[in-house]
């Protein structure tokens, strides 16, 4: 099972993502740089977290206009699985691969803690190893994770099961509308989420709740 | 050369936590009668173009493609 990790200046969780994918898939992911116009044949493309381009203009706005994101969009259109975590989610939204926008946390504070997630749709390639309604733990670390979409988009997301993860049990850290933590595109192959499942994949992390997400996306037996 | 000012503001109905914090700070400083405060961005752009209509079209394209996120923001282009 092959994977790729997108590298952009200012990302800082790329090594975590590379370590997680290496441990889970058994081989290191290929890395692609912002100026690359082609991505090798892989089963999963991951866009890690961080502060690409210093969060200038809007989080993810400049990264979303880099050549590599056109290559990601082409792969996504062909059905390749794409996951964006934290800044990666912001980049996917800015690139128009996912609907809505991620705004400043309502608290105006950077949040860095563990929260609980409810798997609201376990019928996706990313969540098939979880049970519907299962509560999992995940770290979050962000300043702009407050998901917003207009009423029409929100109704469509909710109606089509595109809300995949919700902050559970009063742990919404950022004021996201409907407690939305992660959404998937209509085709079901592009997932964006603010929490960091790659930081909870082994005993050394204090738990492995996030591991099943990557196992599902890569089609690896648990 | 054309000089333009682009103003980007949040759409009505989009929550603006930063504007809210500024609003509270102003009231806390003793400025009476402060109503809603909404925060936005201003871009001053110089453009090597003499045709005003062409410049306006280009500036609007810049807003749609990068300077504004039209999911949550409106923009206005003003040519000096």
From TrEMBL, chain A:
What does the UniProt keyword field contain?
A: ATP-binding, Cytoplasm, Glutamine amidotransferase, Hydrolase, Ligase, Nucleotide-binding, Purine biosynthesis
SUPFAM superfamilies to which the protein is assigned, alphabetical: Class I glutamine amidotransferase-like
Give the InterPro entries listed for this entry: Class_I_gatase-like, PRibForGlyAmidine_synth_PurQ
Pathway(s) per entry: Purine metabolism; IMP biosynthesis via de novo pathway; 5-amino-1-(5-phospho-D-ribosyl)imidazole from N(2)-formyl-N(1)-(5-phospho-D-ribosyl)glycinamide: step 1/2
**HAMAP family listed in its UniProt record:** PurQ
Q: What does this protein do?
A: Part of the phosphoribosylformylglycinamidine synthase complex involved in the purines biosynthetic pathway. Catalyzes the ATP-dependent conversion of formylglycinamide ribonucleotide (FGAR) and glutamine to yield formylglycinamidine ribonucleotide (FGAM) and glutamate. The FGAM synthase complex is composed of three subunits. PurQ produces an ammonia molecule by converting glutamine to glutamate. PurL transfers the ammonia molecule to FGAR to form FGAM in an ATP-dependent manner.
Provide the protein name.
Phosphoribosylformylglycinamidine synthase subunit PurQ
Organism per entry = Mesorhizobium huakuii
UniProtKB/TrEMBL annotation, chain B:
Q: Which reaction does it catalyse?
A: N(2)-formyl-N(1)-(5-phospho-beta-D-ribosyl)glycinamide + L-glutamine + ATP + H2O = 2-formamido-N(1)-(5-O-phospho-beta-D-ribosyl)acetamidine + L-glutamate + ADP + phosphate + H(+)
- Cellular localisation: Cytoplasm
Q: Which InterPro entries match?
A: PurS (IPR003850), PurS-like_sf (IPR036604)
Pathway(s) the chain acts in: Purine metabolism; IMP biosynthesis via de novo pathway; 5-amino-1-(5-phospho-D-ribosyl)imidazole from N(2)-formyl-N(1)-(5-phospho-D-ribosyl)glycinamide: step 1/2
Q: What is its EC number?
A: 6.3.5.3
Q: Which GO molecular function annotations are given, in alphabetical order?
A: phosphoribosylformylglycinamidine synthase activity
- A Pfam family recorded for this sequence: PurS
Q: What class of enzyme is it?
A: ligase
Entry-linked Gene3D superfamilies:
Phosphoribosylformylglycinamidine synthase subunit PurS
Q: Read off the NCBIfam families from this record.
A: phosphoribosylformylglycinamidine synthase subunit PurS (TIGR00302), PRK05974.1 (NF004630)
Assembly and interaction partners: Part of the FGAM synthase complex composed of 1 PurL, 1 PurQ and 2 PurS subunits.
Protein task: Part of the phosphoribosylformylglycinamidine synthase complex involved in the purines biosynthetic pathway. Catalyzes the ATP-dependent conversion of formylglycinamide ribonucleotide (FGAR) and glutamine to yield formylglycinamidine ribonucleotide (FGAM) and glutamate. The FGAM synthase complex is composed of three subunits. PurQ produces an ammonia molecule by converting glutamine to glutamate. PurL transfers the ammonia molecule to FGAR to form FGAM in an ATP-dependent manner.
As for family, the record states: Belongs to the PurS family.
Q: From the Swiss-Prot or TrEMBL record, give the protein name.
A: Phosphoribosylformylglycinamidine synthase subunit PurS
Provenance organism = Mesorhizobium huakuii
**Which gene name belongs to this protein?**
purS
């Amino acid at each position: 099972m092959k994977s790729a990790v997108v590298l952009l200046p200012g990302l800082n969780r790329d090594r975590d993502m590379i370590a997680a994918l290496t441990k889970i898939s058994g081989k290191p992911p290929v890395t692609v740089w912002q100026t690359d116009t082609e991505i090798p044949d892989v089963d999963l493309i991951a866009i890690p977290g961080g502060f690409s381009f210093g969060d200038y203009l809007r989080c993810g706005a400049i990264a979303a206009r880099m050549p590599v994101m056109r290559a990601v969009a082409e792969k996504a259109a062909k059905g390749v699985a794409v996951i964006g975590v934290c800044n990666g989610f912001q980049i996917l939204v800015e690139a128009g691969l996912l609907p809505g926008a991620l705004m400043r946390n309502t608290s105006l504070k950077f949040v860095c803690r563990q929260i609980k997630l409810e798997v609201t749709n376990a019928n996706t390639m990313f969540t098939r190893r979880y049970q519907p309604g299962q509560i999992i733990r995940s770290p979050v670390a962000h300043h702009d994770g407050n998901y917003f979409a207009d009423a029409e988009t929100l109704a469509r997301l909710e109606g089509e099961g595109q809300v995949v993860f919700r902050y559970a049990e009063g742990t919404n850290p950022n004021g996201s509308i409907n407690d939305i933590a992660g959404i998937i595109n209509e085709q079901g192959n592009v997932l964006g989420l603010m929490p960091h499942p790659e930081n909870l994949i082994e005993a050394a992390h204090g738990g492995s709740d996030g591991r099943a997400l990557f196992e599902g996306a890569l089609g690896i037996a648990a | 050369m054309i000089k333009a000012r682009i103003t980007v503001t949040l759409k009505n109905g989009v929550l603006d936590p930063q504007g809210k914090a500024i609003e509270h700070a102003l009231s806390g400083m003793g400025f009476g009668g402060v109503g809603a405060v909404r925060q936005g961005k201003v871009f001053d752009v110089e453009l090597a173009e003499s045709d005003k209509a062409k410049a306006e079209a280009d500036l609007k394209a810049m807003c749609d493609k990068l300077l504004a996120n039209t999911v949550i923001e409106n923009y206005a282009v003003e040519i000096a």
